[in-house]
Amino acid sequence: MTTKTYQLETLTCPSCVVKIQTVLKRTNGVQEVEVLFNSSRVKVSFDEAVVDPETIKKTIENLGFKVIGEK
Amino acid sequence: MVKLTKKQRVLFSGILAIVSFILKNTIGQQLITSIVMIATAIVAGTPILKNAISALRYKILGIDALVSIAVIGAMFIGEYWEAAAVTFLFLFGEYLESKTLEKTRSSIKALLNLAPDVARVIRDGVEVVISPEEVIKGEIVVIKPGEKVSVDGTVIEGTAYLNQAAITGESIPVAKKIEDEVFSGTIIESGYLKVRADRVGEDTTFARILQMVEEAQDKKAKTQKFLEEFSKYYTPSIIILSLLLFFFTMDLVLSLTLLVIACPGALVISTPVSIVAGIGNGAKHGVLVKGGEVMEKLGKVKLLAFDKTGTLTMGKPKVNRVKTYSLKEDELLRIAAIGEAYSEHPLGKAIIEKAEKALGPITQKPEESEMLVGQGLKVVIEGKTIFIGNRKLFTENGVEIGEKEVFIRSEEEKGQTVVLVGDLAGIMGVISIADIVRADSKKLIANLKKLGIEKVVMLTGDNKRVAKAIASELGIDEYYGELLPEEKVQVLEELQQKYGMAAMVGDGVNDAPALAAADLGIAIGGAGTDVAMETADVVLMSDEIRKLSHAIGISRATVRNMKQNIYFALIVAGALLAGVLFKTVNLAFGMLVHELSVLLVVINAVRLLGYGDRGKSRKQVSI
C-alpha cells in the first residue's frame, strides 16, 4: 500500500470534490481517496501492484484538474 | 477554436450576453438577436460541455452535464435567450466563486509566504548563501537587517530586534541577545545576529506550524460531515423527484430546471469556507486551531479549566521570605539549595537562585536524594537526613508541625507557596515562594466571561490556600488545589461529566496528560514546547495568555458564520425548489439566484478574516 498526495490547481467548486472522489474510488487498486478542498490536494492510498501513480495522475487530469505537484 | 483564458472567456461571453439582452429588448427576436444569443451560449458553454463529457467518460453525471443537457434542450426548442443566460451565469458564477474563495484562503497563503527562502551560513570561514533546507545542525548562520532567520537556534553573537509575527502573530519587535532563542521565519528589523542552528528545515517550529495549519484547514467539522451525509441522500432524491415530475407532467424543461437548480452548492460549501477563513484568521493572530471539529468545540465550550503555574502565572517563582527556627537564614538556604541540586521543580530552582544570589555559586551535591511525588525531597547532606517539601512529607515521616502551622497558614493565605525544611527532629525553617501572576490574566478572565464562558476553573498542584488567594484575585469561579498530575485528569473528567464539555488551558509542562485528556486541550507558549504543540488541539504560539480571548472569540464568530451560511443556503434551496415546482422560477433566473447564493456564502465567510483586526472591527473585545 502506497499513499500519495497530489497538489491540484486551486479547487473552486464543491462538486469537483465529489467528482474526483467518485472516479478515483472506482479505479482498480485504489483503496482510499481523500479530497482536501481547502488546500486543493488529493490524498490517495493505492496498491502499487495494481495501479501506478501515473495512471492516477492521468485520471485526475482527464477530469479537467491540472496536477501541479505530487509527493 | 481560439484558446481563451477563463477570464477572457467570462468577459467575452459577458459582452455577448449584454448585447443579446439589448437586442432582445430593442429590435426583438430577429435573426441577428438569435445569432448573438447562440454565440454567447457557445462561448460560455464550451468549457461546461467539455467538463461534462470528461466526467461522463467516467460515468459521472455532474452538474456540468445537467446544465449542458438543459442548454441543448433549450436550443432545440428555440429558447436561445435561456441558453445564453444560463451558460453565461454558470460560467460567471464559477469565476466569481473561485476569486472569492481565494480570498478565504489568503491568510493561510500569506503565512506560507513567510517561509524563509535563503540562509547565509559560515562554511570554512566564508559566508555562503544556500537554501534553508541545506543548513546542517550546529552550523553558524548569519542574519543581517531585513533578512529572515532561516533556522531555529541560539544567538552566539550580536543583538537585534526581531519581528516574530510569523510565529506569535505579534508584530511588535522583540529584543534578542546572546543565549536567546530565535525562530525560523522571524525577521530582523534592526541589528545583526550570529546564530547556532539547533533545528533546521522541517524540524523548525515555523515549518511545523505551517504543516499543522495546512492539515487543519481540511480536518472536517462535524457539521460538515453531517452535510456531506445529507448530500448523499439529497442529490439522488432530487433526481428521482425530477424523473417523477417528468413522468407525470411530460414537461422536460421543468424537470431539467429542477435538476439544475436543486444542486446543493451553497450548502456543501457553507462550512468549509467558514472554517478555512476562521483558521486563517487564527493563524494570522498566533492562534493555531487544529481543524474544523476543534473550531466547533472551541466555539461552543462553556467551561475552561486553567492550570495555574506557567499559565495564569509566569511560571517563574521567586523566594519572598525565609523564616528560620533553629539556624541562620543563610545556612537554611544553603542546605535547601544543596538538597534541590538535582531538582527540576520550579520551586527548587527558585530556592537555588535565591541561595546563589546570597552565597555565590553552590556546587555541593547531596550524598543521597530521593524524590517523593506530591511531597518533596528526602536527601542526605553531610551525613544528615533532611526533608524539603510540604506538610505531607513531614507528617508521613513522623515529624510534628505543631504551632508552626499558624505561620505557614498565614503565609499561604497571602498566596505564598511554602517549602518546609527540616530533619527528623523538627522543622528548621520555612521558605515562602510565590509566582508572579501574569499581567493580563485578570483581564482575560473578565473578557472570557463577556464572550460567554460560564465557568472558569483553576487546577493546581499548589496548596489550597494559595489556590484560593490567586483564584479570588483573578475572579476565578472554582479552584482545585493540591492535585497531582493524574488527579488533574480526574478532576477534569468530573467537570466534563458535569458540564458536558470542558477545555483545559495549560503550558504543557506538567499538565500534558490533562491537555490530552480534555475534550479540548489549549496550550499556551506553544512555540517553545514541542509536546504542548503536538498534543493540544489549540495552540497559542506566544505566551501571551490574552490571545485566548481571540481564540474563543474567533471560534464563536466562525460557528456563528457557519450557522448563518447553512440557514441561508437551506432557505434559498427551499425557496428555489418551491419556485420551480410552482413554475414561477425559470432556469436562467434560478441559475442566477443559485450562483448568487453560493457567492454570498463565500463573501460571508471572508468577513471572518478581518475579525479582531485592531480598530477595524467593532466586535473585538478590547484588551
Question: What is this entry, summarized?
Answer:
With 71 residues, chain A is of the alpha+beta class. Chain A is built from two helices and four strands; from the N terminus they run E-H-E-E-H-E.
Keywords for this entry:
heterodimer, A: 71 residues, alpha+beta, Alpha-Beta Plaits, 2 helices, B: 623 residues, 7-stranded mixed beta sheet, 23 helices, disordered C terminus
Shape of chain A: globular
* Poorly predicted spans of chain A: none
The counted number of beta strands of chain B is 22
Number of helices of chain A: 2
| Oligomeric form | heterodimer
CATH topology of chain A: Alpha-Beta Plaits
How would you explain this protein's 3D organization?
The complex is a heterodimer of chains A (71) and B (623). Chain A has helices at residues 14-26, 53-62; strands at residues 2-8, 30-36, 41-46, 67-70. Chain A is an alpha+beta fold and 71 residues long. Chain A has one domain (2-70): Alpha-Beta Plaits (2-Layer Sandwich), CATH 3.30.70. Chain B has 623 residues and is α+β, with helices and mostly antiparallel strands. Chain B contains 23 helices and 22 strands. A seven-stranded mixed sheet of chain B has the order 10-22-21-20-11-18-19, with helices on both faces. A six-stranded antiparallel sheet of chain B has the order 12-17-16-15-14-13. In chain B, strands 3-9-4-7 form a four-stranded antiparallel sheet, with no helix packed on it. In chain B, helix 8 packs antiparallel against helix 9 (252-261). The radius of gyration of chain B is 33 Å and the shape is elongated.
